[in-house]
Structure formats: C-alpha cells, structure tokens
Amino acid sequence: QVQLVESGGGLVQAGGSLGLSCAASGSGYTINDMAWYRQAPGEQRELVASITSTGTTSIEDSVKGRFTISRDNDKNTVYLEMNSLTPADTGLYYCKARAVWPVATSIVGMDYWGGGTLVIVSA
C-alpha cells in the first residue's frame, strides 16, 4: 500500500508564491510518474503538471511559466513551486503517483492519490 501526503497549501495574495510537496511512503514498490492535479470549486479535477522518474516534465498551458514541478527520487517526493498566483489558481491540489511492483514475471502498476492540500489565492 502506498500513501501520499501533500503539504504546503495555504492562503496567499495574488502575485504571491507557494510551494507544495507530496511524499510517498510504503515499501516494495517503485514510483514511476508523479503528477499534480487541482480541483477548483464546482469544477472537475484537472492536470497541472507531471514528471517522469527520469525527470521529464510536462506543464499545462494554464500554468506554464509560473509553476515548476520537480522530484527527489531518493525521498519519493514531488514538489510544485507556484509563482505569480492568481485567484484562478485557487483549489484543492492533489498529487498522484504511479507505483509499480513485480508479481511473478510481470510488473503491476497502480495509481495512488493524496488527500489534497488547499490553496486559496485572494485578489
């Protein structure tokens, strides 16, 4: 079982910055891709940024140039640095991790989600 715990959310004024982190815990698995999603009030959850185990990143256009995703593989932790925040960035931010592990001669994978951390950007 993999557990993901996010931290770093809070209240910030427009134009400010916040940093989020998400640590995966457990044993017997390898973490592949990790990602950050967000869900604004009344909206569907949307992808914000993703990063592979080798560090290749993908950033959604809505946050490109303002948000940076990174990871520390030794700590199984993914980070999201958010700059120039606007009220439109308000929402619950979730991390997702793809865990894989061997079963007999195969590799099994499963996506795990954190419980979310709230980011509120005031105008």
Task: Give an overview of the whole structure.
By secondary structure, the protein is mainly beta. The protein is 0% helix and 61% strand. The protein has no helices and 11 strands. The strands form 2 sheets. Strands 2, 4, 5, 6, 9, 10 and 11 form a 7-stranded mixed β-sheet that branches. The protein is elongated. The protein starts with a strand and ends with a strand.
N-to-C terminal Cα separation, in Å?
40 Å
Rounded radius of gyration (Å): 15 Å
Number of strands: 11
Which percent range describes the beta-strand content? over 45%
**Number of distinct helices:** 0
Summing up helix and strand content along with how strands pair, one would put the structural category as mainly beta
Proportion of helical residues: under 10%
* Main β sheet profile: 7 strands, mixed
Q: What is the 3D form?
A: elongated
Query: Whole-number average pLDDT?
Result: 96
- Given as residue ranges, the uncertain stretches (5+ residues, pLDDT < 50) are none
> What is the N-to-C succession of helices and strands?
EEEEEEEEEEE
